[in-house]
Every structure is written in structure tokens, then in C-alpha cells.
Write a structure and sequence with these properties.
Residues 1-25 are annotated as: Disordered. By secondary structure, the chain is α/β, with parallel strands linked by helices. 27% of the residues lie in helices and 30% in strands.
Length: 231
Amino acid sequence: MDLQKHAQQPDPTPRSTELRASDADRDRIVELLHDAHAEGRLTADEHAERVEGALTAKTLGELEGFIQDLPAAHERRAAPLSAPGRPAAGVFPADPDDNVVAVFSAAARKGRWRTGRRIHAYAVFGSVEIDLSEALFDHQQVMIKAFSVFGSVEIRVPENVSLRGTGGGVLGAFEVDPQDSPDGNAPVVHVDGWAVLGSVEARPKRGKLVKDILDRVQRTADRSMRKHLGH
């Protein structure tokens, strides 16, 4: 084997600093810059210049450069700027736990209900509403596959979960407002699918919080303790 040739081959896996930045990543850096300016660490000109650069940054590495000389960069070094955009393979079952279908009609899932790991939503000349703001999350990761054809799919999540979107639109609108939860135990909702001459919209519902996160964590801790004591 030609070791020199092998060593020169590029690494196909991008480093974390080369990953594309999201709007949520930019907003977080701008907020840190605002705090630094308020604390007197940045002059008005420095603050304005860095905010402008952060808003147009393309990668996480570029964003980190705007706060590398600030305490916030070192305090947050251990945590990534954003949760992964796509779940790992095999996390979700191939078949949905729940189907929500509206054909020339309306369908909804809302109130106090238990979410599965995978939910499919179909709106064909109709409307689908999936409201997770009061739902019980039995799984940390939830996938919603949304398909809209001349219809609309509206998804609402609590404001303390992470939200991701990877779908698209064909003469339609596919809009997901991504967000990162500061709680590592919070659920992550992934929205995927297509809007064809229709719309798919997923947003946080302000003022609504997942209330069972701490209970779920406590139940897990209790089970682990009982298992440990049983041995």
C-alpha cells in the first residue's frame, strides 16, 4: 500500500467547525454578543461589526470566531452549538405508530395524548393539526412525516423541546422554525416530508412547556436504582 498516497486522501467526514450554521446558531451567537456589549467587553463598533458578521456566517467555525475571545466561548466549549439535524439510522421504526389523515376534511391530534416515535400526517385538499404542546412524550426522539397536497399540516411543539426540519416544498411552503432546548433530557421533534401546492408548518407554541421531563428522568433514575439494589 502507498502510505503517502493514502495519507493525502481527504477525510470525507466534515469537522464540526465546517458544518453549516442554522438560524438558531446565528441567533445564539448574536445574543452572546449582545451580553458581551452590555458587560462592557465589546465597544459599540466591535459589537456592530461582529453581529453583522455573525448574521451572514455560513459555518459553525465562522460563528465561533466571533466569540473566541469572550468568556462565553469557554463556558460553552463542552456543548455543541446545535443538536444534530438528522437522527441516527434505526432510531425510528419503519412503520408509523399513528396516522393522521385528512382528505377533503380536517383531522387533529391535540390535548393530552401520548406520542409514538413515528407519526405520519397526510393532508390532501384538507387540513391536519398536530399539537404536541400538552402531549406526553414516551420517547426522547419523535419523527413526524408530513405530506401536504393542496392542503395544510400545522405542527406545534412545546417551547422547551428541540425542533428540527428537513423537508421541502414543490410550489408550496415547508417551514420549520428550528430550536435547541437547553435541557439535554428534552424531547427532539424531527419534521420531514413535502408540501406540494400546499403547506407544512412547524413552530414552538410559546408559553407551553413539556411538564413530564423531570418526572420521566426521575422514573428512569428510580428504575436504575431498583435494578442496582436488586443485584
